[in-house]
Amino acid sequence: MSSRQLIIVGIVAAAAIAGAIVAVNSANQRTTPFTPGVPGPAGSAGARQGEPFLQGLAARTADVVTVRFQRQDAKFSARLADGRWVIPEKGNFPALDTSVRAVVVGMATLSEAEPLTSRPERYDELGVGDPTGPQANPRSGTLITLLDKADQPIAALIVGNLRPAGASAGGEGVYVRRPGESQSFAVRGSLNPPKEPVALADASFVNIGRDRLRTYTITHPPADAAATPPTSIEFRRAAATDTGFTLQNIPAGRTISTPGAGEGLATLLSVTSFQDVAPVASIFDGSPEAKPGPSAVYQAFDGLIVRLDTVARAGKQWWRLRAEVEPEIVGPLQNPPAETKPRAEVEKEAADLNARWSPWAYAPFDFKTRSLDATFDSLLAPLPQAPTGGTGPTGPSDAPAPGELTIDPISPPPSPPE
């Protein structure tokens, strides 16, 4: 065999050996057992092009029953109970399935890791510092741990800042680090963990539009219940075609401050969300820490009634709601709304609302609760100021006597008639 032929045979043999090695390595990668927090086979620095960063997690997402979040300032979780996700730290308030799944699937689909710093002093730049360690601070990351039904970890990851889409050719992504390892990575994918437990929930809890309302009444508790009766503010309209509500029982000589006064109260129950939620018994417990606040009654043209009680506690105003249906709507309705619901539908709505509301106390955002601070006097135009030199003990009146000529003090007096 010639030298040329020997070289050709050698090249072919080398290529065959290299191909066999690649095949074996590929098989090993496919069959390597999943280890929590390990992105791939031993010795790999990160996910290769197109490979998941947390290999094996995609096949185990259905095993996840708890998602635990730990930040420097908060620790909370979501747990699967009786087929639905709940938030244990909020009395098992329902969590949105989409919010929890976005975290689990987001972790499983991270890919194309780019190694970054291994220096702890630079972790804060990426937001991947350990939130459980002695150096934890507000710039540290969020430790996410996925657990199975035996409370055993499936995967764990410290998730940092989002990486802008234009930061590299990898596209949109996030900075991450595995717990206990120094190497940080930029990975491609969508993963934005919640900063507080209520971010996992549907925070919208009441939506009774103003166009549906016939009347609403706000009652403020007296400063001294034994000495002063409660004060109430009532707005009413006779017909749904009336554009505004009329403030009732205005004292003689007073007028409402503006035509739109009271609109904040009219929309109080419209598209309202909470900043916090808790079991109702833990808030409305009659303790000195729960200071009673304003109460309200909202009545719709179709007979729905919503009653609202409030307490101030721990710097927040908390609401308790319940729904009723009027036994009989008093008086004939003038031009009732075209969308007035049948009574049977209203009764079902009230039952559904009570099933949703009754276990919980809600703390709405401050811009909503401020509307309830309105007092009767704050809705009225100010009283006219008394003249500077009024009558009585302060001296004689400066007002001209009947028939007297009023003269502007900065203008010359008029010339006498000729």
Overall description:
The protein is of the alpha+beta class. The protein folds into two domains: 27-200, no CATH class; 204-379, no CATH class. The protein has seven helices and 19 strands. The chain has helices spanning 3-31, 97-108, 123-126, 263-266, 280-283, 343-357, 366-369; strands at residues 66-70, 75-81, 84-87, 93-94, 111-115, 142-147, 153-163, 173-177, 184-188, 204-206, 213-220, 231-236, 246-247, 272-279, 291-292, 295-300, 304-313, 316-325, 360-364. The strands form three sheets. It has a nine-stranded antiparallel β-sheet, covered by helices on one side. Strands 11, 12, 13, 15, 16, 17 and 18 form a seven-stranded antiparallel β-sheet that branches. β6 and β7 (153-163) form a beta hairpin. The longest helix is centred in the N-terminal third of the chain and has 29 residues, at 3-31. The relative contact order is 0.09.
Biggest sheet details: 9 strands, antiparallel
Distance between the termini: 146 Å
Number of strands: 19
Shape: elongated
Whole-angstrom Rg: 35 Å
As for the number of domains, it is 2
Measured by DSSP, the beta-strand proportion falls in 25-35%
Mean pLDDT: 82
Order of neighbouring strands in the sheet with most strands: 4-3-2-1-6-7-8-9-5
Question: With helices defined by DSSP (H or I, 4 residues minimum), what is the helix count?
Answer: 7
Enumerate the spans where pLDDT stays under 50 for 5 or more consecutive residues: 1-45, 394-414
Q: What's the helical proportion of residues?
A: 10-25%
Structural class computed from helices and strand pairing: alpha+beta
Give the helices and strands as they follow along the chain: HEEEEHEHEEEEEEEEHEHEEEEHEH
